[in-house]
Design brief:
Strand content: 15-25%
Order of helices and strands: EHEEEHEHEEHEHEHEHEHHHH
Low-confidence stretches: none
Structural class: alpha/beta
Largest sheet: 7 strands, parallel
Shape: globular
CATH topology: Rossmann fold
CATH superfamily: NAD(P)-binding Rossmann-like Domain
Strand order of the largest sheet: 3-2-1-4-5-6-10
Number of strands: 11
CATH architecture: 3-Layer(aba) Sandwich
Radius of gyration: 20 Å
Amino acid sequence: MRIVIFGGTGQIGTMVTQQLIAAYPNDEVLACSRSAQGKNKIAFNIYQNSWSVLGKVDVLINIVGIIEEKGENTFEKVHVQLVKDIIAKRNEIGNPRIIHISVCGADTKSKAEYARTKGVADELLIQEKNVAIVRPSFVLTPGTAIVQKVNMVIKLGKATFGFLFLPKHFLTAKFQPVMGEDVAKTIVKLVISNDEGVVYTTGPHVMTLVDMIAYTKSKYKIIALPKWLMHPVFLLLTKFKNPFMNRDQYYLLAQDNIADNSRMEKILGRKAKDTNDFWKREIK
């Protein structure tokens, strides 16, 4: 079996690649990147190279994604056009099984371009046969984006003498963070299963931003500011380059990101891993 991974050298991709190698030691696992070197890696530019260099592929795993647009790497190009290319070139590389990593909040009507384009890509793939779409909530790995945001909020609280001034709609949005290991192992299991369609990969606990902040060792008093006051202010701030958040992150942090994980747990053959120890380690 020949397994090719697009985005196999990123943070989540590396974890998936390592677990695939361990799970299928007698099969060929290849992580694609533009300047790949070493065993289990293949140099391949998904936008420039001929796909014939991939050879006959049995399973294609697509983990490519961006959380912020930079230069020519737009959400439309990275999320939608790549999926269109995968579908168009599928027969050329042996008509492989496709495992596509999306996001829990994927929605063609989302105000966040990140989630909207993920939704568009999913709609294209859902019409294809032998395709599994994995939709994780926030994936927990060391230093992941949500941890950075929470720690940034806590740091701001130190500058305001222990008071955290936050939009009320940020405090009520519900999330279901999942351990990176669970996402990776779900993908590993999907390689040889017959599961198709959407598989939500979410953790065992529904949390809010308040719950995440509570893991800090310091004490803070949260002041909830009304949406009518903060919404225009935050949208204005997102028009400028700032370290706190961009427009997409603003919308994503203000909406629920939860889903039933029973299908994931059935595939794994166990319950989702507890995230408590992760938060204790990562929140400063």
